[in-house]
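This protein record is not my work; I was only asked to verify it. The record follows directly below this note.
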Amino acid sequence: MPRGIVVVTVQDVTGQFLQPDSLSLASEFGSIAQLTTTAAGAGTRLEFVGAAPFWLMLTVTRIGYWEVVQRFLYLPSDTGALGPQVSPSGGHGRHVNVACLEIVQPGGTDERVQITIVLGQLRHWPVATGTIDRSFELTPPRGGAAGSHDRYTHLGGTPCLVSGNEPRVNDTGRVIAPRGTVHLLERSGTEAPRIVAAYRPSPLRPSAAVGLGYHLYFCPFLPPEAHPGPYPAGPGYIDLLQRYLLTVHQMVHHHAAAGRAVIFVFPLGVRGGGMGQLPSQANVYRLLQELNFWLQSTAPIGNEFVPVGRIALSCFSAGIHAHGAVLRSDRFPPFWDRLKEIYDFDGVYAGDPRSMAQLVTLIEQWGNPGNQGMQDRRLRIYTQSGAFARLGSLTGGRRVAHVHGASETSGPTGTLLDTPFEFWHEMNPKVFRVPGDVHGYFQDVFMYHALMNSGFPAA
């Protein structure tokens, strides 16, 4: 009877070998009369005989990772094929690598197929909402008409403030037509954040030498009194994704307008529970590794795998809690050495000046490693609070005073925009009636400024 040999090794996205919880081989067509499973180094050897051709289904599972199910046609050479031949099916991309080997041994030829399975912690979010898909292309319709996601977007210029006797912001508006793909991905397990949105611009041509840049943003988590529905697919959570990414805060549009080779990453926290265990240097870096592998598995960027490159970390409002937790966590060199950009859009530790002071100290330490200065780091802070004043020295520029207590300190390595509420109220008392009216304006206008003045290369 025809005989086949499959040797399966299992890895994670970092290349570390894993011991699967289960590994099974079944025949969908034809039949397997006998199956023998033995250990083979770091892998598992599956030897089988039966009726060829073998239409096989390989299933690999491990807690903490998504299951991989791979179907393939196996033709051993004793069925007339020239050596063992395998035709995989399905869209696993880099998650399944197949190599056909013919090893000459004393007494005969040992045909085997080496299969490497990469288990990942991300997958497309299999949810249908009717208003936002799990993955959607940002491409214009035919005929040159405007795209459904085109938006008039306010873009902060350089410098941020206009000099003179009147309070004015260097804010230019134009219609932005983002191109690329927004992916909604589900993480394995039950801990928040269960969902991660990622915007991949198009075109995107990073080099393997430079790496692929990532900008991870922490939004304020929903308060306990909010009623968004069940996590993560409740209407309130879907609305939050749409508002931040596309309709109100237009973060995808800011990235598209800046035209930088950077993936925007938006973890979706849970009401009252925030970001779970994600806010640590090691955990954030692992998420970026998982995302980096998943993106290039589904749509390779080029002929070679591009590693994680430059990293930006940012936050808005109460998102500063997760932002600060990452900086305070145990030092993880693969992350810390790539963390080249920090942006703060009016981050607030409400009633907690001690935590704010600790964060300022941490940023100072990040910005002057080994007393060597900022070097290729970039710091952008846009705030109503004077608590960040000490960080102006990291910008490499001088402080310029403006009316109503506002100031801007800008230089080659950073920006500190300090604009108290009085500045905004005098500029437009009908729009900016209370400090909360100003709060969201910082990210709605100046995220573009941070990206345009970043160290990320052009897309």
